[in-house]
Amino acid sequence: MCANIMKIIAIDLDRDAYEMELPIIKKDNIEHKINFIQSSALSSLDELLNENDNRGIFDFAFINADRVSCEKYHERMLELVKVGCIIVYDNTLWFGTVAMTEECVKETIKPNKQHIIQFNKFLASDTRVQIAQVPIGDGITICWQL
Ligand SMILES: C[S@@+](CC[C@H](N)C(=O)[O-])C[C@H]1O[C@@H](n2cnc3c(N)ncnc32)[C@H](O)[C@@H]1O
User: Fold this and answer.
1) Does residue 103 carry a pLDDT above 60?
2) CA 75, CA 71: separation in Å to the nearest integer?
3) Domain parsing of the chain, residue ranges
4) EC number(s) of the enzyme (predicted)?
5) Substitution site in 66, 69, 140 for ligand 1 pocket (most atoms within 8 Å of beta carbon)
6) Which residues, judged by CB distance below 6 Å to any ligand atom, belong to the binding site of ligand 1?
7) From CA 17, how far away is CA 104, in angstroms rounded?
8) What is the Å distance from ligand 1's center to 70 Cα?
9) ipTM (interface pTM)
10) Alpha carbon of 84 to ligand 1 centroid (Å)
């Protein structure tokens, strides 16, 4: 027999973002498996890394926070996630704007467009992962840690 010991750590600055999902979490009876941390992602990831036992133990990570710190999140995720496991980044097509000329992009979304283009280039040249850019939703990039 195999005990199901899956645990999820969810980090967000805004508790409402977690509470919005609570009805679904409760319906699926998995609330007890989720440790929600209301905090900045960087400081929480650094706290996790301060505990050596947390290094290389996570099977999966999904990143959908601010776009400015993605490279910093990536460095930390490579320490936390097991080799051979998966890190996914959301919004890596940024409403399709990563392939648009500047004139076609609304001012409000221009800054993140640049951050995401830069991050996509960074991931494409990162030899520590293999990546697949998947054009569903707003684009996700799946990284397989080598
Ligand atoms: C697009 S929403 C995604 C919400 C949810 N994580 C999901 O995947 O459905 C982006 C979330 O990132 C959170 N966020 C932005 N900057 C953050 C940071 N530095 N640390 C932690 N969370 C952050 C926001 O509060 C917001 O809830």
Assistant:
1) yes
2) 6
3) 54-145
4) 2.1.1.104
5) 66
6) 11-14, 17, 40-41, 64-66
7) 31
8) 12
9) 0.96
10) 26
Cα–Cα dist 64/12, whole Å: 10
- Specify the CATH architecture of the domain 54-145: 3-Layer(aba) Sandwich (3.40)
One-letter amino acid of 43: S
**What's the pTM value of the predicted model, to 2 decimals?**
0.94
Pair of tokens at residue 96: 């399709």
pLDDT at 6: 87
Calculate how far, in angstroms, residue 126's C-alpha sits from the geometric centre of ligand 1: 24
Cα of 11 to ligand 1 centre, how many Å?
8
Q: Which amino acid is at 99?
A: A
Give the CA angle between residues 40, 69, 85 to the nearest 5°.
90
